[in-house]
Amino acid sequence: MEHEEVRMVRGPRSGLPVIVAVHSTTLGQAVGGLRMWHYPDWRDAQADALRLARGMTYKTAAAGVPKGGGKTVVALPSTVAASRRRDALLDAGDVIESFGGRYATGPDVGTSEADMDVIASRTRHVFCRPLPSGGSGDSSPATAAGVVAALRALGPLAGRRFAVVGLGRVGGAVASTLAASGATLVVSDVDPARRGLADSLGAAWVSPEEALTAEVDVVVPAALGGVLTAEVVPRLRCGAIAGPANNQLQDESVADLLHARGIVWVPDYVVSMGGVINAMAVEIDGVSAAEAARRVDGIGTTVGDLLEVADRDGVTPARAAMDRARTRLENGLVHSGRD
Ligand code: PHE
Fold first, then answer.
1. 113: helix, coil or strand?
2. 43 Cβ partners below 8 Å, 6+ apart?
3. Which alpha helices (DSSP H) does the chain contain, by range?
4. Which residues touch 105 (CB under 8 Å, ≥6 apart)?
5. Which of 297, 185, 244, 121 is nearest to 175 (CA)?
6. In whole angstroms, what is the distance from residue 136 CA to residue 272 CA?
7. 3-state DSSP: the chain helix, strand, coil percent, rounded to 5?
8. 22 by DSSP, 3-state: which?
9. CB of 33 shorter than 6 A to ligand 1
10. I need a labelling partner for 273 at 20 to 30 A (CA). Which of 42, 65, 242, 307 fits?
């Protein structure tokens, strides 16, 4: 068993499956958002929680943040009344509280900063509450800023072509910045209502499948995970892939397939670490918004370093990032060398 602890509860108020997975507290309290999403079966939700929690361990380690990795998943039915959804947040808050501070949550796919206030009525171990409640607020602008910093590390934005797969809170903000920076955009979202944003950005609107396989400089996966499979790799027509969607690779061997095709894949947990960097900078270290933004922007340097190390050592950026995270997990953050 790789995870330190996994708790699954049928929420007493909501009747919905609540899964909290703590992957590692080696570097500190496990952190990771609460995902509320639809799954065919609770076992799928559990598998997602395990994968996402693991990703958070590498995310915080790669970010140099003294935190571990965990995640909460609540499996929602296809339609859910607002009151039942609220009950599920309270149920999740109780399970999180039962960890006694070894795990703290935050927002993720399907949850907002307002939801963090609901959770806070059951536990204080929650990040990203709204600013008036004393939190650092919605993490998605910082996540998006980090994605843009990562993309800049791959080359100039102006005049280049990007495919943004998913126009949610993070993907939508990234697409807006890219458009404002003079990039050419192909975009998609499973929700047809997002087409208005695409039109306002002058972006071509295509299906998620077409966006993923578009002939562009960079594909930016910004929706759910598992999109990069052995089947899709031969059909890709991009030079690089860098986006915030967690767990993009169906399995780790896909990183090697991408490398063999000459496609640079920047690990998702590096590209997406802006949200957690910002929340920890503001809520733990108490730094100014400007200093937090500077730290988020440092993701560009991290990506540049990883690409350099990968090139020098003849390994994939995935391997270089994993080595960096593992070194920190084994030796702690202080003795991690040049970082
Ligand atoms: N959910 C986001 C992530 O996966 C951001 C986040 C998580 C922010 C936990 C704060 C705490 O990184």
1. helix
2. none
3. 42-63, 82-97, 113-120, 140-153, 169-180, 195-200, 208-212, 253-260, 268-271, 274-283, 289-297, 299-313, 317-331
4. 31, 32, 33, 34, 70, 72, 92, 96, 116, 119, 125, 126, 127
5. 185
6. 17
7. 45, 15, 40
8. strand
9. yes
10. 42
Categorize the per-residue pLDDT at 334 as very low, low, confident or very high, splitting at 50, 70 and 90.
Answer: low
- 67 counts as catalytic: no
pTM over 0.85: yes
Q: What is the CA radius of gyration of the chain?
A: 19
In contact, 104 and 27? CB cutoff 8 Å: no
Identify which has the larger pLDDT, 11 or 252: 11
What's the full length of the chain, in residues? Answer: 339
- Which phi and psi angles does 235 have, rounded to 5°? -95, -5
User: Pick the catalytic residue: 71, 125, 129, 161?
Assistant: 71
Residue 294 has which token pair? 């500077």
Nearest CA to ligand 1 atom 8: 276
- Residue 207: which of 175, 161, 168, 163 has the closest Cα? 163
CA of 237 to the centre of ligand 1 (A): 30
User: What is the whole-number distance in angstroms between the Cα of residue 202 and the centre of ligand 1?
Assistant: 30
Question: Ligand 1 pocket, 271 CB below 6 A?
Answer: no
* 140-151: pLDDT as tens digits: 999 999 999 999
Q: For 72, how many CA atoms within 13 A lie in the half-sphere containing its CB?
A: 36
In this prediction, residue 336 carries a pLDDT of 41
Q: Which ligand 1 atom minimizes the distance to the CA of 279?
A: 10
